[in-house]
Specification:
The chain is α/β, with parallel strands linked by helices and 397 residues long. The chain is built from 13 helices and 20 strands. It binds nicotinamide-adenine-dinucleotide and zinc ion (2 copies). One zinc ion binds next to α2.
Length: 397
């Protein structure tokens, strides 16, 4: 089959690789119809997540048709399914309490030491996301093996097309959990750093949850315009002093909650961020946390901090004092996707949520390397790239 494989920093290729096979009775094989490129994939593309190996198949946002099932799979051939990026067994201590991204069984035993050394514990297996999270082949491919297929995949009705449901695999539940983690109350003002897919869905979710004011921060005009269309007030951090603006917009109090939907590759020209860029480049492995640092200073005392943005290692000069002295509450994590898919599918069906506005480009799988390049380098207008394995390359490309 054809699949998008990682070969090093900014080097991804569409290669011919072996077809996946059923290994365990609970597995299913999915023929992928749509798969998206995520901001998390950019961390792999930029080479800032450890544990990648040449030839790894990327992709953790995908859906398709079931073509093969193991004897214990509950899926049926021909069903259309969206697959959560978190691989979870459904029956360990953490899965039982719906903390699916901490599943104890899906990250294979021989890989667990690597994660435990960095984080104290191994975390769940994730599709297409480094050997720290299990080294599973991802879904930016014609076919993919889905372990624990009786737990993760959600069957979607045929009257909803791929564009309407694909983002149940990750970014919609991630935006939703980000807003939920901000514990929003009806009169709250919440500020969201980053108007990429995760930030935009966090904004949409916060509004559905009833936040009275949502403020979006980025520097890309098109992405800020999308945030405005969703109902947010916007701040361009290149033109405006973010902390001063937020103080003013929250009546001098500071915002009640903050959401960091930027993560470890924060842009910015403050001196600490520029130093972090260099450290990251020479492999000293520091997260670039300037958006999060700004958020910790801007939130009001006693406020809530939600961090959907991904961090991989250690952050330098972290304002721990602000966190403690202001009595902040912090909630974060890889999304417990399986916890949210059913409710969010219902919200898509009844029209409460529409995520199709986000998609800016649909490309054949064969064109995926260009998709990565543009999603990284023309971020403003390439808001979300969906790859279609069945689509022909245009004759002129
Ligand atoms: N927790 C999870 O399970 C989960 C799931 C999916 C994605 N993520 C993470 O969420 C983050 C965002 O993902 P995405 O797909 O939206 O990525 P993206 O790269 O498309 O968007 C990030 C946005 O942040 C903006 N930004 C950069 N620096 C900023 C700053 N200092 N202040 C304000 N905005 C700034 C960028 O301009 C960009 O628009 C990534 O770290 C990704 O890995 C986490
Ligand atoms: Zn993703
Ligand atoms: Zn489990």
């Amino acid at each position: 089959m054809r699949a998008l494989t990682w070969h090093g920093t900014h080097d991804v290729r569409v290669d011919t690789v072996d077809d996946p096979e059923i290994i365990n009775p609970r597995d299913a094989i999915i023929e992928v119809t749509s798969t998206a490129i995520c901001g998390s994939d950019l961390h792999l593309y930029d080479g800032v997540i450890p544990g990648m190996m040449p030839g790894d198949i990327l992709g953790h946002e995908f859906m398709g048709r079931v073509v093969e099932t193991g004897s214990d799979s509950t899926l049926k051939k021909g069903q259309r399914v969206v697959v959560p990026f978190t691989i979870s067994c459904g029956s360990c201590f953490h899965c039982e309490i719906l903390q699916y991204s901490a599943c104890e069984n899906s990250n294979p035993a021989e890989k667990q030491d690597m994660a435990a050394k960095v984080y104290g514990h191994a975390m769940a297996g994730l599709f297409g996301f480094s050997h720290i999270t299990g080294g599973y082949s991802g879904g930016q491919a014609e076919y993919v093996r889905v372990p624990y297929s009786d737990v993760g995949p959600i069957v979607v009705p045929d009257h909803l097309d791929d564009d309407q449901v694909l983002f149940l695999s990750d970014i919609l539940p991630t935006g939703w959990m980000a807003a939920e983690n901000a514990d929003l109350q009806p009169d709250d003002t919440v500020a969201v750093w980053g108007c990429g897919p995760v930030g935009l869905f966090a904004i949409q979710s916060a509004i559905v949850m009833g936040a009275s004011k949502v403020i979006a921060i980025d520097h890309y005009p098109n992405r800020l315009a999308l945030a405005k269309q969703l109902g947010a007030e916007v701040i361009d951090f290149r033109k405006t002093n973010v902390r001063e603006a937020l103080m003013e917009m929250s009546g001098g109090l500071g915002v009640d909650a903050v959401i960091d939907a930027v993560g470890m590759e924060s842009h910015g020209f403050a001196i600490d961020n520029m130093v972090d860029v260099v450290k990251q480049k020479v492999g000293m492995g520091f997260d670039r946390a300037s958006a999060l640092k700004q958020a910790l200073l801007a939130v009001r005392p006693g406020g809530r901090v939600s961090i959907p943005g991904v961090y991989g290692g250690m952050a330098d000069k972290f304002p721990l004092g602000a966190l403690m002295q202001k009595g902040l509450q912090v909630r974060t994590g890889q999304t417990h996707v399986q916890r949210y898919t059913k409710d969010l599918l219902a919200k898509i069906e009844d029209g409460t949520l529409d995520t199709t506005f986000l998609i800016s480009h649909r490309l054949p799988l064969e064109d995926a390397p260009r998709g990565y390049d543009c999603f990284l380098n023309v971020q403003d207008s390439w808001t979300k790239v969906v790859l279609k394995p069945g689509m022909e390359m245009p004759a002129t490309a």
